[in-house]
Amino acid sequence: MQFTAEQRLDDGVLEREFVLGEIPGVLWTPASASAATPVPLILLGIPPLGLRRMYPRLAARARHAAADGFAAATIELPGSGDRPRWPAVEQARADLRRAMEAGEPVGDEIIDPLVLPLVEKAVPEWQTVLDALLSLPEIGGPVGYSGGVISIGIRLAVVEPRIAAAALFAGSLVPAAIVEEARRVTIPLHVLLQWDDEGNDRQAALDLFDAFGSKEKTLNANMGGHTGVPQSAGDAAAGFFARHLR
Amino acid sequence: MQFTAEQRLDDGVLEREFVLGEIPGVLWTPASASAATPVPLILLGIPPLGLRRMYPRLAARARHAAADGFAAATIELPGSGDRPRWPAVEQARADLRRAMEAGEPVGDEIIDPLVLPLVEKAVPEWQTVLDALLSLPEIGGPVGYSGGVISIGIRLAVVEPRIAAAALFAGSLVPAAIVEEARRVTIPLHVLLQWDDEGNDRQAALDLFDAFGSKEKTLNANMGGHTGVPQSAGDAAAGFFARHLR
């Protein structure tokens, strides 16, 4: 893991850009983090819109996490932002857009080729990055996962025992195979649902919440569309991590 | 309003039993409450199990509210606890029990005679008590309503403009007429749902949440049965009132 840039933000948070192999990312650590007092870590998942575009929201979440005493890190998804283009996934995304614009049902034949390759590639990348992050003396554990593509969060929660708790954004574009995997998730979950999310089917999201195998899971549903998540919902997710990562 | 007993709890909270006409109740005020610094008020709804039986849970909620700087008050429902028996409602309750034990569907013919008379009588009682409470110099506003029989909370939210925000416990034993009233609720709502509530139909509860007319409403759903509400859900409701009553 090579740090390529760093700056100290006004609240004392150290923001470092890094590259690990071909994976670019950003790490935020609170001023209090040191080898003597290593801090828990929250992995910030992002949608496939590119790290640069998502930076303001990610940085705000990371600073909130740092104020609670947690480090936070994010990585660019394969095929997103400045990473090499991924024609197969771009094709699948174009198929999705076409179906949605035509008002056609979005079935497995569109969702699977869009989401499954991303899960297959992104989850091992997160695990490699997690190895590197946990080798830093100022990062301890436990580790939480927050947001981003929900299918990636589900697979990570199943295969990566170092993830202790996850806050996921309910989406309906989840392959049937991943819904099945959700039954094997056992860690505490905090699931955010936007009740009038224009891109997601509410009933599918509720069914997915029901499918999770975790004994401890909370659904936090709020009015509004995909980008209308209220401040209180962000605070609730932060409270969830404060309970589970301390 | 006559105070019939009072005690100062170990956290400085003043607990006073009162009677207003034929309505018994309890008022809790934080040590900080005075004519110079009147405090907001949370009305604590209770199920028809009797104030005495519910006291430990009510007192815990009241002390939590007091720690946040709020007064809290509850009243015995008509026909409950030490109040005169109400044969019609007892008959309706027996009908409900019989239907549930027989595994029969619980329809409007059972729900309406059980719930509607209670709403008709309890809501004006709450309003009378609210008049008296707000005339106390140490109680100011705004006023929140929390818990109890959800149909009473819905009617109060519709007819009582002094209620500024409500935290309701989702139940499915809601008359169709009250679901229609829910569409006219416009105040901020925080709705608690126990995902595996043995006494409630989950889909009916979700439909009721959907029906509320409020632009600002949050569904907080957690695993477990009717009495298994986790501590974090209580904290979330407290956070809701802290945002809306300060």
Name a few traits of the molecule:
homodimer, 246 residues, Rossmann fold, globular
Itemize the secondary structure elements and their pairings.
Two copies of one chain form a homodimer.
Chain A: E1 2-8, E2 14-20, E3 23-29, E4 39-45, H1 51-67, E5 71-75, H2 87-101, H3 108-134, E6 139-147, H4 150-159, E7 163-169, H5 176-182, E8 189-194, H6 202-211, E9 217-222, H7 231-244
Parallel strand pairs in A: 4-5, 4-6, 6-7, 7-8, 8-9
Antiparallel strand pairs in A: 1-2, 2-3, 3-5
Biggest chain pair interface: A-B, 23 and 23 residues
Secondary-structure-derived class of chain A: alpha/beta
Through-space gap between termini of chain A: 26 Å
Can you identify the CATH class of chain A? Answer: Alpha Beta
Shape of chain A: globular
Using the 3D structure, state the CATH architecture of chain A: 3-Layer(aba) Sandwich
Rg of chain A from C-alpha positions? 17 Å
Oligomeric state of this protein: homodimer
| Share of helical residues of chain A | 40-55%
Query: Can you say what the CATH homologous superfamily of chain A is?
Result: Alpha/Beta hydrolase fold, catalytic domain
Widest β-sheet, arrangement of strands of chain A = 1-2-3-5-4-6-7-8-9
Mean pLDDT of chain A: 94
| CATH T-level topology of chain A | Rossmann fold
Number of domains of chain A: 1
Uncertain residue ranges of chain A: none
The SSE order of chain A reads: EEEEHEHHEHEHEHEH
- β-strand percent of chain A reads 15-25%
